[in-house]
Amino acid sequence: MTELSPSDIAKDAAAAAAVRLVENGMRLGLGTGSTAAFMVRRLAAFVKEDGLQLRCAATSKATADLAESLGMKVETLDDIGWLDLTIDGADELDPDLNLIKGGGAALLREKIVASASDRMVVMADGSKVVETLGAFHLPVEVIPFGWQTTKQLIDRMLTLMDLDGRPILQRKRDDAPLLTDEGNYILDLSLEAIPEPARLSAALNAIPGVVENGLFIGLCDLAIIGKPDGEVVELRPEGAEE
Ligand SMILES: O=C[C@H](O)[C@H](O)[C@H](O)COP(=O)(O)O
């Protein structure tokens, strides 16, 4: 077996702690990304060894494929209807547990699934914890029709809000636009700092052509932060009860 890097040890430790929150009979949302992949592997082993009965919806085709390859059954969100718990990764999280997500282009399904869950738990390594969101680029999912106009509208709105961060289209290695699972494009905003994430999120989503943005405001109930020594710490939104 290949040895895990310190960052992977941290991700796996967070994943292991998150999986301990899963109970028999739960309806679960499965996140996307490298940390979520550790969680899916641990969950699959748990299901196999303990015969846990779960109903799972995935936040991306990649996660559904991974879970199914490990013998788990994945259903659509509409088949399940509502979820008890969603466990996902994040690109950044602030002290209120507002998040930037979508570094793997899965933000739309991730936000729908998190919004349809009683609880959202985020797993991350310590490098993702920040005072102010924005050092990580903010992905915005836009429909392909008129995307350049949408880009201009975003640009104008950022200027009005006194924010820098010109939108850049995410492309694949062959230079073609990257397509999300929904067949949309992603525009990345390099803002450096987002002083008012809720205001920016609402302004972005009010632009025709924008489907959703990667700011997750007030959705995360608990963050489990893994450390390179395998320990974890739990963070809750400021003022929230345990
Ligand atoms: O679209 C991708 C997701 O939002 C991921 O959860 C996020 O990018 C974190 O991924 P990772 O665990 O690979 O850092």
Automatic annotation (TrEMBL):
Highest taxon of source: Bacteria
E.C. code: 5.3.1.6
Key words of the record: Isomerase
Swiss-Prot/TrEMBL catalytic activity: aldehydo-D-ribose 5-phosphate = D-ribulose 5-phosphate
Protein's pathway: Carbohydrate degradation; pentose phosphate pathway; D-ribose 5-phosphate from D-ribulose 5-phosphate (non-oxidative stage): step 1/1
Amino acids binding substrate: T32, G33, S34, T35, D88, G89, A90, D91, K101, G102, G103, G104, K128
Function of the molecule: Catalyzes the reversible conversion of ribose-5-phosphate to ribulose 5-phosphate.
Protein name per UniProt: Ribose-5-phosphate isomerase A
Species this protein is from: Paracoccus aurantiacus
